[in-house]
Amino acid sequence: MNGPSGPTLSPGERLRRAGIAAWSIIGLLILAAIAVWLLYRIRIIFPPLVLALLVIYLLNPPISRLERRGMPRGLAATLVFVTAIALLVLLSVALFPFLSDQVSNFTEEWPEFRSELVVSVRDAGNEIEDRTGINVDTRRITCLLGGEQAEGAVCDEVTSDFRSAIGERAGQLTAAGRSILELLITFILAPLLALYLLIDLPQLQRDLLNLVPESHRAEAADLGSKTGRAVGGFFRGQLFVAMTVGVLSAIGFRLIGLPFWLVIGAIAGFFNLIPLIGPYIGGAIGFVVGTVSGGFSLGLKAALVELVVQQIDNHLISPQVMKRTVQLHPATVMLALLAGGTIAGFWGVLLGVPAVAVAKILLSHMWSTRVLGEDVTPYQTARGREPPSVVPKSEPDTTEKNGVPPKERSEVDDEALAERP
After folding, report:
1. Is the alpha carbon torsion for 400, 401, 405, 411 positive or negative?
2. In angstroms, rounded to a whole number, what is the distance separating the alpha carbons of residues 49 and 222?
3. CB atoms closer than 10 angstroms to residue 325
4. Cα–Cα distance between 294 and 112 in angstroms, integer?
5. 342, 334 in Cβ contact below 8 A?
6. CA distance 118 to 292
7. Separation between Cα atoms, residue 236 and residue 242, nearest integer Å
8. What are phi and psi of 401, to 5 degrees?
């Protein structure tokens, strides 16, 4: 026997709510456009802030577990933060000899590698011309790579054009230097910003909830919980997937004898942070290095290694990670990447998917509650905790209101909240 169903809304009421929701969405889009324009004017704060948020999403779970076991929040945040830095230092020290050797070998072998690359480009052009009849002029490419040409005028022309291009962009060297300085400042400020935010995170949550009217605080806490799980799960999942792909790629490249296997594996893992696009970059680099250094067979083996790693990622790792976080269709992910890259370049590509996931959560919530008339989902977490209290524990509410003690008033308020539509 089916249980009692909720009240059924009339068609007119549904239409009225749909109109309200539509105008609300239009208003939100206008406000979002204004906010994007204002934030663009102060976009310099985004890199350290985004990196700090990434650190927060990675370190907050263990800090929260230590806090639940009775450790003060500040001490837990400091302990986890110092431990994470120590692990990064130990990992860097352990990998530095391998990276140093491979960089030194690359520096020593670069002239020979460059010559082999020139020959490979020239042979590839000749083969394409023999098979298809299409004339492929590789002289400019080989000249820029350092190859000697019988027709010296071509190299002179290419060199002249290249120098002219550098001269035209000389003004951008200052911008490049400023970008490097901003990058250094980002990696210095972001960890400090993350540490301060991690220590005061519960208080910041309470302060944000205090800005919301009391009648909507439970709903705001529920939305905050959903968006936090989606964004945090996405970043933690992407980092785990990137590390897994990097390790598997490096092991595979080492087994087939690919030169610079650790560096190429690290590159493959790093670019795997970009969904759907990054995996091909590591495979392409492995194929080029393998083909130039060991012939087409080694390049093909490197490409096959990356293909196997990506199949493991696409069918075993990423589906398990993504279905628990963003829950977006692959076509939506591709459109989010294109839109984010067009708007904000690398940062847009990195943040496009979680931004669309958050928008999906907000619009779905608005449609289900404002149009369909469904109840607000109660705030819940994996351990059944209550939303962050808006009253600090150190200042309990002991005042009476209308002659009702706080404990009894809380029970009355809970009953009223349960009866509210």
Report:
1. negative
2. 24
3. 20
4. 13
5. no
6. 9
7. 10
8. -130, 115
Token pair, residue 68, equals 């639940």
pLDDT in tens, 194-239: 999 899 888 888 888 888 888 888 888 888 888 888 888 888 888 8
d(CA 217, CA 417): 11
CA 120 – CA 127 distance, rounded (Å):
10
- The rounded distance, in Å, linking the Cα atoms of 390 and 382 is 21
Exposure class string for 202-220: b at 16+ Cβ within 10 A, else e = eeebeeebeebeeeebbbb
> What token pair was written down for 379?
């705030």
Contacts of 3 (CB under 8 A, 6+ apart): none
Calpha distance 325→333 (Å, rounded): 13
* Residue 216: closest CA among 13, 387, 364, 356: 387
How big, in percent rounded to 5, are the helix, strand and coil portions of the chain? Answer: 80, 0, 20
Give 44's DSSP letter: G
Please check whether residue 321 is in contact with residue 273, taking contact to mean a CB–CB distance below 8 angstroms: no
**Cα 186 from Cα 171, distance rounded (Å):** 23
Non-local CB neighbours of 41 within 8 Å, separated by 6+ positions: none
The Cα–Cα gap between 43 and 52 comes to 15
Identify whether the C-beta of residue 209 lies closer than 8 Å to the C-beta of residue 216: no
- 282 and 268 in contact (C-beta within 8 Å)? yes
Q: How far, in Å, CA of 338 to CA of 398, rounded?
A: 55
Token pair for residue 280?
């091909």
Strands (E), 10-72: none
Quote the CA–CA distance of 379 and 220 in Å, as a whole number: 9
Phi, psi values for residue 404, rounded to 5°: -110, 125
Q: At what angle do helices 261-271 and 73-132 cross, to 10 degrees?
A: 110
Tell me how far apart the alpha carbons of residues 263 and 268 are, in angstroms, rounded to a whole number: 9
Are 322 and 312 in contact by the 8 Å Cβ rule? The answer is no
The pLDDT tens digits for 28-42 are 889 888 887 887 787
Least confident of 248-252, 363-367, 392-396: 392-396
| Mean pLDDT across 262-287 | 81
- Cα–Cα dist 263/92, whole Å: 13
How many CB atoms are located within 10 Å of the residue 345 CB?
10
- Joined together, the tokens standing for residue 413 give 């308020």
Cα dihedral sign, 22-23-28-29: positive
